[in-house]
Amino acid sequence: MADAPSGGASPARSAPRRATAAFMLRHPARWIALGFGSGLSPVAPGTVGTLWAWLSFVLLQPWLTDLQWLLLIAAGTLVGVWACTRCAQHLGVADPGAIVWDEILAFWLILCLVMPVGFGGQLLAFGLFRYFDAAKPGPVRWADGLFKSKSGEPITWRQGLGILLDDFVAAGCTLVVLALWRFTIGG
Predict the structure, then answer these.
(1) Global pTM?
(2) CB contact burial 94-127 (16+ within 10 A = b; e otherwise)
(3) Which residues contact 172 (CB under 8 A, 6 or more apart)?
(4) Which positions of the chain have pLDDT values less than 50?
(5) CB within 8 A of 8, min separation 6: which ones?
């Protein structure tokens, strides 16, 4: 069985596959899209991917400036459209739950913009982001549906972009709530 559809502009959907460690190891796009393994969690992969983002941010923060973080997030977004598209194509699902690169980039953006805050502020940011990403209220639901493919349509870069977009909108909602909280509470 081939690992990937042919390299054409709009490969046809293959039968859905399950993301496993062996699957991830066969292509660099899968490493990235599956959050270096965090998306392989059998329970709440989006939450596990967000926790991976939080841990990696805390570990890398002493060595990266705000500008370097923003450049990393921008580059990660460009690479992420490719990686998420290819991984979705390989899995045969337009927006698989195992793809967590979107959570990682979005939570890095949140932390980059709210730091320095203590553990409580980071935990609040984590909880708000998970709420907006999972519940998909208002603008997040709109962004989530913007690039959805119809049944039987090929998975293209539009779905890869869509995978990332709703998480960035969830990050924006999180940042608005945190800003309002800081403004009203003075935190």
Answers:
(1) 0.90
(2) bbbebbbbbbbbbbbbbbbbbeeeeeebbebbbe
(3) 139
(4) 1-13
(5) none
